[in-house]
Amino acid sequence: MGGSPTSSSLLCACSLAFYYYFSLMSLLQIARAQNGTTPASEVSALNSVFSQWRIPTRLNPWNISGEPCSGTAIDNSTSIDSTSYNPGIKCSCDGTVCHITQLKVYALDVEGGIPDELWSLTSLTNLNLGQNYLTGRLSSSIADLTQMQYLSFGINALSGEVPKELGNLTNLLSLSFSSNDFSGSLPSELGNLTNLQQLWGSDNGLTGSIPEFIGNWSKLQVLRLQGNSFEGQIPSTFSNLILLTDLVLRNNNISGSILSNIGDFQSLALLFLGNNNFNGMLPALKSTSLLNIDVSYNEFSGSFPSWINEQGLELNLVANNFTIESANNSVLHSGLRCLQRNFPCSRNSPIYSDFAIKCGGPEFTSSKIVFETENETLGPASYYVTSTNRWAVSTAGLFLDNTDTPYVSSSSRQFTVSLGSQSSGYETARISPGSLRYYGLGLQNGNYNVTLHFAEIALLDATRAPGWRSLGRRVFDIYIQGNRVLKDFDIKKEAGGVSFQPVQIDFTAQVSENYLEIHLFWAGKGTCCIPVLGTYGPLISAISAVPDFIPTVSNNPPTSKKSNKTSLIVGIVAPVGVGTLNDGRVIAVKQLSVASHQGKSQFVAEIATISAVRQRNLVKFGYLAPEYAMRGRLTEKADVFGFGVVALEIVSGRPNSDSSLEEEKIYLLEWAWRLHENDNEVGLVDANLLEFDEEEVKRVIGVALLCTQTSPQLRPSMSRAVAMLSGDIEVSAVTTRPGYLIDWKFNDTTSFMTTDTPRSENEYNQFSSSSATMVGDLGHSPINAVHRVQEIIGEGRSRD
Ligand SMILES: *[C@@H]1O[C@H](CO)[C@@H](O)[C@H](O)[C@H]1NC(C)=O
Ligand SMILES: *[C@@H]1O[C@H](CO)[C@@H](O)[C@H](O)[C@H]1NC(C)=O
Ligand SMILES: *[C@@H]1O[C@H](CO)[C@@H](O)[C@H](O)[C@H]1NC(C)=O
Ligand SMILES: *[C@@H]1O[C@H](CO)[C@@H](O)[C@H](O)[C@H]1NC(C)=O
Ligand SMILES: *[C@@H]1O[C@H](CO)[C@@H](O)[C@H](O)[C@H]1NC(C)=O
Ligand SMILES: *[C@@H]1O[C@H](CO)[C@@H](O)[C@H](O)[C@H]1NC(C)=O
Ligand SMILES: *[C@@H]1O[C@H](CO)[C@@H](O)[C@H](O)[C@H]1NC(C)=O
Ligand SMILES: CC(=O)N[C@H]1CO[C@H](CO)[C@@H](O)[C@@H]1O
Asked: Would you say which domain of life the source belongs to (predicted)?
């Protein structure tokens, strides 16, 4: 046995540790004085509620037989939002009398109705009953809780109408009842809630129109009503809501046009209107803070406003009726033409009879099927159409809990079972926190055999992670051609409860209008945060569709007119003297040369691979985006930064920092910026390079400078960078210098510091092991806590 501890001796040590821990805790509790006495009526109401909910008394962190307002309940160092304090109460005492002011019973799987005694706790200002299985109606006695500021019933099974008595709670700042079964329209009494800052009412069965009185909520910042059945137009009073930051109305049946003054909403950051019947043109103006926009699946029309080309924009425009002028000539939008209502590309003149996609990963071949690379940088609202117009992908949805979650998942694990017969394609997968759609385009009409390949690679199973970490459930729905073919699909369950086990599902789909749509949709079910925040929503590894008939079309893409351009760019970089480069650059140049022989999407993939390699293996200062170097915040935009640096290195034939050079040249980015300012980009070009096109060089340097901006938001997306490189769209003017770590570190903690909240590693380790479905929390103010609790709710129910 050697000297290593056996599992049973470990167990022993653990129990001892627990024993001492709890002994210490009870000593502390006894030592803590109480600050007053709670009225007997409140004590008995509290205890009665808990006993009716059958919450084991051992979970009660207060003295159930004596004074509840003692210990943690009056200890200012523990907030009601603390994960480890659940269930929890907080009291307010004046020295003689205490009242229960805050109550949390969160994610404890409590079943049944809400006991009437609860409504006698009239001093409550904060009540969080989120994520249980509460049933029945909300009592009109809720009117008695007039002190209430933060009220959450999110993720339960409450039903009936939203009680008009909620309108009596005029101190409310935050109200949440998302993911319940409320029906009917919002009662007009809610118009009295003039202090309201947040309303979360997504994923219910609410009907009627968005009420006019909503204009009374002039302090409203967050309005989320997605996944209901609201209809009618947005009322004009809405224009009062100029403090809105998040407006999410996805998946309703709302019609009419967007408010014309939406450009006045200076704080608006998130506008999600997808899956409704909105029409008219997109607004001419929008605030600069508005960077996440989903208007997919509506009836919008007309030409695009000029802000559409703004940098850092997440924008999903698919399935509308926009006029896409050829004059605009952008790769981003030329493909969009194929994704408008009626899917007009190759309509009635099909060219393809199959397609196969490696979702979220690089191309590979299996059983003679070439699964094409789908390695785009997709985000909260984005789409991508292949240059061959053979297939496309579209996403809508935000990982709001964890904005760093990439829209791909990958695992270093080697799969023994392969996708098809050869190498495995399961190491990577595309994920989405909401709607993920794949389209086959230009298809000959007829029946197709569609195969969807899945393997759970983010959730763990019991053999790999005993305890709560194995309890994650990923649940989503699958629609093909608009019909739901699988509800509550759970990859791991389908694989017999194991992760890393491929699951293949076959369908027959009828193509009658030359396109095929596969829609994976998260309806808010399953767990959100196990083993880490943001682990939910559709995940898919690969898709193939083959005809169930003898095709009569060529199945080849039309010859491309654009491929030369990309080669040209690569052409100037490929000849750079390899001998003078360090190892990393040899890889880069080799891959670029290889890419020059292939199509554009290969080029994108290669560039992405190179920058990813940079991030993971060549972790050196110089390639790292400032936000990553300083705070370990790895985003797609950090990749873009790395790409920018590599591009400059390739053009200049030198590393990003070289202390043997003159002082002004030591740091490549600094030098490039100086040359750019002096309109002398050509001065950067590697002296070994005899022949080059000056315009191309300027273009590459311009793109590189954009990619290396300090603020991630100012950096273009990878697809945009490639479009600029290939000359499909103009290179935007670079007006601010790039971010180089040297001076950034000391005196330039600008832009991005203000746009995202720093998060520590530990935040992700704060899940308590006592409850599997618990959401980590950061001890935020209550309003943020409610926010976080509810943000995990995605699309709400689908209307498809
Ligand atoms: C609980 O309250 C009872 C009655 O006030 C008291 O006798 C008992 O010591 C208390 N227990 C703790 C753990 O504080
Ligand atoms: C209880 O009393 C302590 C010391 O007097 C005070 O710091 C604390 O704020 C009080 N707590 C409450 C909830 O009143
Ligand atoms: C609730 O507000 C209404 C007016 O909107 C009032 O008539 C009613 O008495 C209030 N109920 C309670 C319990 O305060
Ligand atoms: C709320 O809005 C309605 C309709 O817009 C208006 O008639 C009413 O006076 C407003 N109520 C308050 C309390 O502002
Ligand atoms: C949506 O609203 C339109 C009117 O704008 C109506 O014709 C249609 O039936 C509604 N659809 C659903 C599913 O309620
Ligand atoms: C799209 O707009 C055009 C006119 O701009 C109109 O003729 C056509 O019917 C519209 N298509 C749909 C599907 O609404
Ligand atoms: C593209 O695929 C490669 C795997 O070959 C992966 O390493 C890389 O991170 C992917 N790029 C993006 C942008 O996801
Ligand atoms: C975004 C953009 O540049 N849109 C332009 C597309 O072309 C039309 C007509 O040429 C212009 O009116 C748009 O402004």
From this structure: Eukaryota
